[in-house]
Amino acid sequence: MRSIEQEIKDKKSVAVMFSGGVDSTLLAKLAHDALGKDAIALTVVSPLIDPREIEEAKEIAENIGIEQTLIELNELDDPYFTSNPPDRCYRCRILRNIRVKEWAEERGIRTIADGLNYDDLKDYRPGIKASADVWHPFIELCMGKEEIRERAKALGLKNWNKPGNACFASRFPYNFELNKEKVDLVRKSENFLIEMGFRSVRVRYFPFNLASIETEDIEKALLFRAEIVSALRSFGFSFVALDLEGFQSGKLNRTVTFR
Questions:
Q1: Under CATH, which number does the domain 168-255 receive?
Q2: 236 backbone φψ class: left, alpha, beta (φ>0; ψ -120 to 50)
Q3: Strands (E), 169-238
Q4: Which residues make Cβ contacts (< 8 Å) with residue 229, sequence separation at least 6?
Q5: How confident is the prediction for the chain on average, in pLDDT?
Q6: Distance in angstroms (rounded) separating the CA atoms of residues 239 and 233
Q7: Which of 42, 39, 34, 36 shows the shortest CA–CA distance to 17?
Q8: For the purposes of burial, counting CB atoms within 10 Å of the CB of 198, is it exposed (0-12), middle (13-18) or buried (19 or more)?
């Protein structure tokens, strides 16, 4: 089997859809090493992405040495997306791909690539169907998350063990309408918990202004429940609950009855 480095070199020029997560970081590193100035990292700036993530992505790109371009996109301007249907990610990916393709064509970039990995195929990922024109090298070469983390660690990438993080839209159950105010409330609440020292944490937003907190450190959340409830209530939530099952990425996909 050909190596991923050989596959990248054959593309001549690559734009990597770069979030700063371990998958896209490894791909950006490999692309830069293989193609130099003909590899570019594209980072989407959106109200659905925490500004902290954008700043971290900038720092990582600088450390790699790869040229980075920021592309602004506001998915909350799209009525279909904000209605939050089960195929929300499909719509989001279409909107992003349109912007990225326009940019790549202007720059003469031959290939757009992303960091989707082989393990992503096991979950509900409607966005993959919207990316027929995007190259998924890790899927093509059957590279899963564990192998990607191992390679990232071997290459000295500092975020090799960074927890996965989805956009803020993933905090809302399907068919519960999205808007900027709700997204900002989730962002503010999660940042508060992160500043308290919680590492893997989600604040799910349910109807009736209910915040459901997912964290790996349930005992700590219970210990500081008074402070957490007070803060989230002051931000705008009416009810604050703790999910006793703990943190699990993609948990709301359980509600999808078709795949």
A1: 3.30.1340.30
A2: left
A3: 201-206, 210-215
A4: 240
A5: 93
A6: 7
A7: 42
A8: buried
Contact between 91 and 177 (Cβ < 8 Å): no
Please provide the size of the chain in residues.
259
- pTM as predicted: 0.89
* The residue to which tokens 């893997």 are assigned: 200
More confident: 25 or 132? 25
Best CATH choice for the domain 4-154 from the list 3.40.50.620, 3.40.50.300, 3.90.180.10, 3.65.10.10: 3.40.50.620
- Report, as an integer, the average pLDDT of 143-167: 93
Q: Quote the DSSP letter at residue 165.
A: -
Nearest to 157 by CA among 68, 61, 70: 61
The C-alpha angle 135, 52, 67, rounded to 5 degrees, equals: 45
Are the C-beta atoms of 69 and 41 separated by less than 8 Å?
A: yes
Kindly report, residue by residue over 14-72, the tens digit of the pLDDT.
999 999 999 999 999 999 999 999 999 999 999 999 999 999 999 999 999 999 999 99
Distance CA(41)–CA(19), nearest Å, equals 9
Instruction: Give CA–CA dist 177/150, Å, rounded.
Output: 39
Calpha distance 242→229 (Å, rounded)? 10
Confidence band, pLDDT 50/70/90 cuts, at residue 259 = very low
Beta carbons within 10 angstroms of residue 27's beta carbon: 30
Q: Which of 197, 229, 188, 223 is nearest to 210 (CA)?
A: 229
Judged against a pLDDT cut of 60, whether residue 110 lies above it is answered with yes
Please calculate the CA angle 99-102-108 and round it to the nearest 5 degrees.
140
Nearest to 115 by CA among 151, 88, 156, 75: 151
